[in-house]
Amino acid sequence: MDKTQTERWQLASDRIREIAEDPETEGELGDYFQRTAEFLLLMLEASEKAETKALKNASLEELQAWNDQLYGDIAGEAYESSYANPAYAVSRLTDTYGQILSFVYTELRGMIVYAFEQRTEEMLICMELFLQIHSAFMGGERPSKEQLLSDVYWFVSDYSDVMVTGRVREQLDPSLSFARDIIMEANLTDPRYLYRFGEYVTEVQVRTSRYLAALSEGEIEKIASAFTEGYRIGFEVAKKPLHKKRTVNIRYCLGFERIIRQAVKNFEAMGLQSIIYRAAVSRVNMRETNKIGYYGASPCRQYEYDHRGDAALFMDRAFAERKLGVLKTAYEQYKDMALVHAGPAVMEIFGELPFKPESKPEVLRLDEKQQETQVYLNSRMGQITNEYIPGDERSFTIIAFPVPDIGEQFEEIFSETVKINTLDYMTWQKIQQRMIDVLDTGTAVHIVGKGNNKTDIRVALAQIQDRNSETVFENCVADVNIPVGEVFTSPRLKGTDGVLHVTGVYLDGLFYKDLKLTFRNGMIVNYTCGNYEAEEENRRYIRENVLMHHETLPMGEFAVGTNTAACMAAKKYGIEDRLPILIAEKMGPHFAVGDTCFSWEEDVETFNPDGKRMIAKENECSALRREDVGKAYFNCHTDITIPYDELQEIAVVHEDGSRTVLIRDGRYVLQGTEELNKYFDS
User: Fold this and answer.
1) Given CA atoms 219, 221, 222, 224 in this order, what sign does their dihedral have?
2) What is the pLDDT of residues 541-558, one digit of tens each?
3) 264 in Cβ contact with 180 (< 8 Å)
4) How far is it, in rounded angstroms, from Cα 232 to Cα 239?
5) 20 to 30 Å CA-CA from 518: which of 30, 36, 277, 632?
6) Beta strands in 257-396 (DSSP E)
């Protein structure tokens, strides 16, 4: 810190100590300010411990106790009486102050991260926000709600240059190596290292780390190579210039460091430095409940869900333009780093305990105008990012592994997942090509559910001009999307009509009962589910978490998942409802709402292994990029899978009205694909 910052720090910390002793206001407000000041003192202690490396030699028991102290105010039942809980805050602080002060407290909790990483500027900003809010209650008259809203708005707006610029830099600059240094230097056989990140740590992360520590070097290399080779092959297949790139971003959940360490080494052999940045902790940089970056356990998923709409306090057009301006300036500042960034390599987890969120009237929600502004902001941010990290030059890969929450057979399930993630792709490539040869002769695909599944939808297909050189479906093997097993296309919107229904599904960690989407000419025209008694709540739930505040979304993808091995492994262990979409989408037909799989790279030529060029890379929405890019993309893509046992039929519809059945009653019947049924039979 420079001299001025040091003086501000001293003044702020002294004042916070005074408020912790005497909040200078009575009743519930006094309780709020005192408890919040005590939390800030804990953050000052955390910063001191991090600076002096006091935690490095602490025992595992001491580290666990310290971690519990940092997150104890929102973990488990404690959340019910925490000011981070909007319902509790409103009940104690009234409608006038409750939501705003709950947001402030939540924003201050990001200081845990800042303390561990010694990010003193962000810590100071947070301390001064608290003092500004507290000062508004000093004197005679209490502040109006509008005054507090103004304080929050200008805090977010004024410090966007720090928060947003910092976020761009940590995504691109390999010299910011806080997490990578821990991963590469720590003794990964000793789970104490997990507490050095500053994330919430539970027995799940400790047990995962210990399990991986017991695996042989060969097993770790096999797992890591599936991950990194998928990334490399993704560039190779798409004919993208990996040789021009210098950095890759690794995203993962704590506990998997032994695999990540090997992945870092593998990427280094490709000429790529690994950037490992944390999931955002400030609402300015967050996207709903999505975690982009590395992260630990969630102390309370309801807490995260309750604050997904906190941007309602400041989201307007002026803020959006302010953030976009800062983002553009930041990318311009780091444009050389952006140009050599290759994209993300993502390791997801699955098996966490199911979460069904409670809908609370006290939480903040974007109104219609704010939703429109959020959609505009997301769209423009996507455009700016693509300007500096061109979509036609970057790629990605995603792989997933279970965590111990999945049950007593965790180790068996993990081993089975490794097998699934490393299946011989040549077998699937051949079978899938047989399916594609038939799909390419159709004008549409008709999908019908069975039993309680009410799906009845006709998906229109792009039309081939030259069958010898063109294809409508991509033959997807284990590269960017691991494991192997799907053929997919971007449907033609005109003529895509009907109902998509699943009796139960988890999407981005949220459960949907009887999710039903109705399409007309490829666009969602109606939607509902059975999560709540009130239809208004069901529609709001889908609007916020599937439509991502859009009034409608197109069908961006239709695919047939072919990984029956994964399907039967899921049934064997009874984990069908615990799988991530990455694996679940390979276990039956799936439909994505939002952008196509080829957004921002529609004009890059893609070829199947048989040499045929993929022609279905855009739809009527993404084609608008030539006129107005803001209308072309929706910046979301959510896959919804119908399981085999809810499937009556998938049939290719030909121009003359005839039909060729691919799947009937959940089994493959097309000649040349019957081998996939062997996993059902076993």
Assistant:
1) positive
2) 999 999 999 999 999 999
3) yes
4) 11
5) 632
6) 273-275, 341-350
* Share of the chain residues as helix, strand and coil, in percent rounded to the nearest 5: 50, 20, 35
The pLDDT tens digits of the residues spanning 345-398 come to 999 999 988 888 898 999 999 998 998 999 899 889 989 999 999 988 999 999
Buried b (16+ CB within 10 A) or exposed e, 53-91: eebeeeeeeebbebbeebbebbbeeebeebbbbbbbbbe
Token pair recorded at residue 293: 């970056």
Per-residue CA distances from 26 to 13, 33, 226 (Å): 22, 10, 60
Burial string for 368-400 (b: 16+ CB within 10 Å, else e) reads eebbbbbbebbbbbbbbbbebbebbbbbbbbbb
* Cα separation, 602 vs 490, whole angstroms: 11
Burial class (CB in 10 A: 0-12, 13-18, 19+), 459: buried
> 580 or 163: whose pLDDT is higher?
163
Rounded CA separation 256/349 (Å): 10
Alpha carbon distances (Å) from 603 to 245, 583, 592, 613, 619: 21, 28, 21, 12, 12
Residues ≥6 apart with Cβ < 8 Å to 94: none
Q: What's the chain's length in residues?
A: 682
Q: Which residue has the tokens 């977010």?
A: 156
φ, ψ of residue 270 in degrees (nearest 5): -90, -5
The set of residues, in sequence order, having a beta carbon less than 8 Å from that of 627 and lying 6+ positions away, is none
At residue 529, the pLDDT reads 97
332: CB partners within 8 A, 6+ apart = 388
Residue 104 CA to residue 89 CA, distance in Å, equals 11
Strand partners, 287: 290
| DSSP labels, 466-516 | -TTTEESSEEE-SSSBSS--EEEE--EEEEEEEEEEEEEEEETTEEEEEEE
